[in-house]
Amino acid sequence: QVQLVESGGGLVQVGGSLRLSCAASGFTFSRYAMSWYRQAAGKERELVSIISSGGNPHYVDSVKGRFTISRDDIKRTLYLQMNSLKPEDTDVYYCQAPGVWGQGTQVTVSS
């Protein structure tokens, strides 16, 4: 069964940090690019960052220099280190592999 399970969300103050994790199972994790998306209530889901199977990262402009995506192919886990968090980073964050989504984890940044 293909499954993605996110964790690590929570409530943090402006300028704080969180590290999201996404545990993958049921497919050959190392072969696929993996992504983080986020979605606010009433808005479309948007791409935050993607990492290739070879470990090359890409970020949307709004998070460049603050977020770092990484992967551990041995642990079959995707990460998103989020620093210098802003209120506008408040969203539900989703892990994505081709054809499958996690359940999401809420990140709330309080001012």
If you had to describe this structure to a student in words, what would you say it looks like?
Helix content is 0%, strand content 53%. The protein is globular. It starts with a strand and ends with a strand. By secondary structure, the protein is mainly beta. 31% of the residues are buried. The strands form two sheets. Strands 2, 4, 5, 6, 9, 10 and 11 form a seven-stranded mixed beta sheet that branches. The chain has a four-stranded antiparallel beta sheet with strand order 1-3-8-7, with no helix packed on it.
Please tag this protein with its features.
single chain; 111 residues; mainly beta; seven-stranded mixed sheet; 0% helix
Task: Report a brief summary of the structure.
The protein has no helices and eleven strands.
